[in-house]
DNA sequence: TAAGCTGTTGCAAACGTTTGCCGAATGGAG
DNA sequence: CTCCATTCGGCAAACGTTTGCAACAGCTTA
């Protein structure tokens, strides 16, 4: 049915190898012949069969993109950026969703391995060992997790968490809660460590609640527990949980940020739409997607295994306010600054 | 490098065709032989090369999923459902984003055509003619657009729009605005027609504002124009625009739903998170994704070109309230019902 | 004028599978 | 004991490409 290289060869009176070269090594064919071949190819509607090409060259011009949950608003901007960037480099992208399940994740990587030139593993939940192992089957770039010896692009969540905690301390909060993310998440460990260290250094308390699935519902469900700790400020693993918490607190008549301050992480599209607008740590997800694609495609050339860390920024909106130990002067300035940003 | 069927054959002392049959036609090989082959395959870590298989069978076991904008929260649930469903049927999914550009869309379909067994075209912006044309190159299922003779799955937005308008009329609104979506959108035409007819039948006014890009910003930007019309209720093309409008109105000190009622369409994850919670028409996007995959995969068997319409439901939350012509009794009941749903 | 280069093309093997065909072995029926 | 049917496995062609090698023509160089 489909028109092949052979049809083009016959129609333009040359050997199939000449047609092949017209597309994959144009400088090796006489300009005159080339244009003739191109013309008939165009006319016949010929398109090279990538599968056949892959079979012999070993390069599929496909990449795999594996994420924990496509519907988690953190990922779509990353997927979009990666796909667009890959396509610009003539690569197509398989997208797959593991539903936060490490077993599915492993299956998926292995199923995809033969069909792609490399895989972008986003926020993987597998063990380091498993990742090391699949790495031998297919080139990998890990996103949002740092494993020694493996190419990775991560957001500097440690920095973000420190900034967030410092912001809360500056506002006069002395008892904080970290509403933790899922077990097995590198990001979660980083945040926890950074937040804990920063709070401790300032002589403040930090209570960790979790682990939790990183969705709105668990944030809402944690409201009760948060209140019981007596803390006046909460840092959540991500915006989804922060938003869930925010609303559950309001439903209980707790004023945010009057009685409790809430900070999220990610700056998903909707964190600016809830009321109060959410103070959060912005993650450059689109840049991460592009960078990861670049790293993956370069990996073929040399064996370089760089690890790139992307800057994060605290965005102060309206879900954070003065705490019980607020130094009157400093606070008003701080709050004013926050309102300006809005 | 990679372990092939030949390695397995050698290691288990059979011909490659026997190995092949062990995987693709198990009933043709002696159980004893089969288990021996499976054992060595397992041990060697053999995985069939899908590209090679595709070359000879003509079936790639891949499908393409083309959407206008991955980052538009309407799509991720659809993508997720389609991917999961496809994988359960042993298919992998290419996802691509056209950025609402019909030219990119056409390119993409043609580039993907050879690599997939079929394509899901979601909310396409191409002309009917172009779609008809590519249809001859690759099996297609169109989502969110109805084209005669083409397999399609659409949401019954007409029904949703009618329900929404009736809800507003029941509440006592007599002057409505339809905040329109993008040019070239089939959905947009359907809503507009249904809403217009329903309003007219009840002797109410419906002013159309648009077309607009289907994003939050245009919703916000339309606030001024909406107020100028003097309308007391707005139906928006989608939740994104409705939310943008909602917030812009509140920023201007307009009470929602006290002064103006707002209804969205789609029921994206965040429409329940804004305050007031958004009354909206729920679209079964996940079901649409699954159905579309099923239709695509069945298409190979027969040439059936069904067109499936999925039910939509009005979800009454808190962004709609009594209008100027509200019959006192009916309203209180209605509003009470709305609050219960919350 | 012979030798050697350069540019262009054809030839054929190879990539990893599937599958129609054929032959060998087995076993039951007559 | 022969015949036939059935089951199993091997052989080889085919899928649509790429690519090393060789052939040839037309030059240049000595």
UniProtKB/TrEMBL annotation, chains A, B:
Keywords attached to this entry: DNA-binding, Transcription, Transcription regulation
GO molecular function: DNA-binding transcription factor activity; transcription cis-regulatory region binding
UniProt key word Transcription: yes
Pfam families: LacI, Peripla_BP_3
CDD domains recorded: HTH_LacI (cd01392), PBP1_LacI_sugar_binding-like (cd06267)
Coiled coil: none
Keyword Transcription: yes
Signal sequence coordinates: none
Domain (HTH lacI-type) ranges: 3-57
SMART domains in alphabetical order: HTH_LACI (SM00354)
Protein name in UniProt: LacI family transcriptional regulator
Highest classification ranks of the organism: Bacteria, Bacillati, Actinomycetota, Actinomycetes, Micromonosporales
